[in-house]
Amino acid sequence: MQVMSRSGKKSKGKEKTPLLFIHGSFHAAWCWAEHYMPYFADLGHDVVAISLRGTGGTPALDGAKKVTIDTHVTDLNAFLDDFLIDQKEPIIIAHSFGGILAMKYLELYCELGRIRGLALLSSVPPSGNGKMTLRFLTRSLKTSWKITAGFAFKQAITDASLCRELFFESPTDFGDKRNGLSDEDIVRVQTKFRRDSAATIDLVDLSKKLPSDNTIDGIANFIYEKKFEHPSLVVGAYDDFIVDKEGLRESALYLGIENEIVMIDSSHDVMLGLKWRNGAEALENWLSSSF
């Protein structure tokens, strides 16, 4: 597994909890390395980002084109086996489909006590993307098609305009560097997306193993039964093209924090572009008040 890490700046104050960043579809560890890893290392956190199986840094076995959620969970657990030899239990910060991986991991392994907290950024909700897709269909066939084309048919890799709209653009953005990304930046990102989508998550398999299947009134069993009592955070972006407000509320309810969603001025890729600090500062505020 590809791992990127950075040591936190040490000070005489309280030792900071390490942070483990988990990316979403089409991304890999690099998406955290551009801004978030140096930002939080400067605040004193040891930071690490992993590239999930199916990306350029961690290829799928035998040329597979799909990776199951169970494989991702097993890989994450194996990574933590090694990580915890030299480090304290980390706080997971997960984006998009990385969020559903984090939820599934806690469903299966929270009793191991390996995670100190969880922050979800523009996360796919515990019921997956199926219900969101249906909601988009009822609101706008055009929007629903763009999301389907961008992900299922991987057109976000080849269509620069679609890539910008899905991941980086806000309706109020304008000029040559909308959300801080020039046309050249989009091409650079698309090159990485192409490399890091060689194998994608198996959605058919995932639909049979969704975290939402193990809930009580929408609350995760491990929250309801008080097996995971560490701080959690759900961050949503006002201009997210992919994850809607209902999805955010579902994730927050799942973690027992239904009325504590933090909204920021950003598009879906909160960690990239000109507005990356908005998400980073929301995380910093939560970390300083909760740990």
Order of neighbouring strands in the sheet with most strands:
1-3-2-5-6-10-11
| Extended strand count | 11
| Cα-atom radius of gyration | 18 Å
Low-confidence stretches: none
Percentage of residues in strands:
5-15%
Fraction of residues in helix:
40-55%
Biggest sheet details: 7 strands, mixed
Tally of alpha and pi helices: 12
How far the N terminus sits from the C terminus, by CA atoms, comes to: 29 Å
Net shape: globular
Order of helices and strands: EEHHEEHEHEHHHHEHEEHEHEH
Structural class of the helix and strand makeup?
A: alpha/beta
Mean pLDDT level: 92
Name its key features.
41% helix; two-stranded parallel ribbon; alpha/beta; 7-stranded mixed beta sheet; globular
What do you see in this structure?
The chain is α/β, with parallel strands linked by helices and 291 residues long. The protein is built from 12 helices and 11 strands. It has helices spanning 30-33, 36-42, 69-86, 97-109, 130-139, 141-151, 160-168, 183-195, 203-207, 221-224, 245-254, 276-290; strands at residues 3-6, 19-22, 47-50, 66-67, 91-95, 117-121, 200-201, 215-216, 219-220, 232-237, 262-264. The strands form 3 sheets. The chain has a 7-stranded mixed beta sheet, with helices on both faces. It has a two-stranded parallel sheet with strand order 4-7. The mean pLDDT is 92.
